[in-house]
Write a structure and sequence with these properties.
It comes from Phaedon cochleariae (Mustard beetle). By secondary structure, the chain is mostly helical. It is built from nine helices and two strands; from the N terminus they run ααββααααααα. The chain is globular, with a radius of gyration of 18 Å.
Length: about 230
Amino acid sequence: MRMQLERSEVAFNMFTNGSSKRINLEARYNLTDEAIRNMSDWPPVVLQYETHKKLHLDKDTFQANLTKFRQTVNESTVMDVLGWYTSVNAALLDHLTNQIKENDNSGVWRYLLAFKNLLKSIESTGIASVYGVNYFGQGRLQLLSYISFVTHSALANDLLNTAFNYVPQMKKEYQDLAANMPNYGNIQLRNNIILQNVQRNASDLKAREYFDLMAIYTDELRKIQRSLRVIIQ
């Protein structure tokens, strides 16, 4: 999902003060906007606003709010940014869940459920990776951030394994991913370092390395997701 990628890159630039960028944010914004324009079926999106108000957004209103949010992102905290993007992704995932319920007699329900769980696993992986970048970029995670990293890392693994249970051949695809992805073994090594949460020197370089590692990993997961979509269609 383009919104997941935008969230990761915006958060990364905030953690590293924009000193090094995976791609230009304007380019990322344009890709997200293109994906929104191409959506023929717009789900109901409800965003929490100022902690107590809720906005129910149609497609045009959402695009306007997204543009405004981008313009003020430097005035926000990283957690505000993470929360905003995550609420949008949650609405899109709920939309997918409803579509699956409507198609549960179609003969491909196992693939649909695996697709949903894989998509949610990628979402949790993306959230956890934001906190991982925070750790390397800031030198330590505060308690709530640490809890969120642990929670979303565990959830990502559980959802991935659930997807394997629905479609066992996915596990073979994942094993191929692990065998062929450069530096795959470093994912667990880096995550173990984050789990220890030992104070370290803040490093934009280490944050960038972790960001790129997790970006490659989630890109590989999306390849499996696309293969599932082909079967479903």
